[in-house]
Request: fold
Amino acid sequence: MVLLRKIPDLETSPKTPLLSATIINSSSSNNSESEQSPQSSNRFVFNEDNSTNKIDRISVMPSTWKSPSSSSYKSLAILSGHIGSVSCLALCGEFVLSASQGKDIIVWQQPDLKKFAKFGHGDGSVKALVTVGNRVFTAHQDSRIRVWKVSRSSENLFKLVSTLPTTKDYLGKFMKQSNYVQIRRNHKCLWIEHADSISCLAVSNGLVYSGSWDKTLKIWRVSDLKCLESIKAHDDAINGLVAEKGKVYSASADGKIKIWNSIQGTNTSHFLKRVLVGHKDVSLNSVIVCENGRFVYGGGSDGYIMGWEENQGNGDWNLVCEVKAHNMSVLCLSFMGDYICSGSADKSIGIWKREKTGGGICNVGFMTGHEGPVKCLQASLYSVGGGFLLYSGGLDRSLRVWWVPIQDEHKKKKKLIDS
Reply:
């Protein structure tokens, strides 16, 4: 199934009413049913020069593979209370933040997952959020970024302190015609403004990056909230962003992941370093970066997860992973150590383990329970009983908490020897 160019704001009415309790503990694994994943096949990579290269190293799931027992993956809780579909998640110290298309943001306190606070503002649903120190940046459908300050000394724990672009930024630029850009016929706007929904945010080295359906990537300075740069980054909507170690990775509906580098010694100027090309006419909806930028993985609207490895010798990138992960579009990716988690429009969550060498991935199970597409995932650093917590937000308006076990290779070998 191929989605439209923009990730749609799918609204689904749950088949059954949402549970009214804030937290529902689950002692069983009824929401974690096993599923068999389809077999994948070799594909070609389409390069910028329209040449094709056959992939030598590709991770293909064996047709005989079967998922492990569903008891390995436990649904710990179902959190309800959002007005609309859950669109994004973020960790903020001891809190988990979940936002929805209903404009509301709910703060859950770890590890007991009690509802701690609720806030929200604006004319558009919340599309993305990131945390920087004691501030939270939220991106909205109304093309604005809102900045919230976290303070325990105030009755209003999350206080709105600014909206981007700031008034100061506007006043410094609106008089000069050179600061305006053409966004469509007979319509211009300042280059510091997004002209469509802001779909994703990332933060690194004192900068906040915003990607939009208007195809642009903008860079904001955290210290004074000034817009430093705007890049015409893609030929279609930007759906996912990752920023780390001076590099920015943007995934787009044009089927490409682009890697941007900042000029050495400055964070204010970025240039295109590499283009990773996915499947033809397939939107890339999400991107993650593992092992300090050595591996990049993208989730596509055709249900595939694709991965690339950087050749440390010459800086080139090789396609090392191409797996038919879901029957429908992969909407989100998250990772914890060697584990990659994928959320899909088919309502399931896939758990994948990365190979020690080569960058391939192998499926170790699926989790089901959401009554709508899984729109966002966030792995937690909290270690629980030899595993980690995974939060998932769905278009069924619920936030679910899962326990994902981590396989210990030493224990596994010992068990084989003992048997």
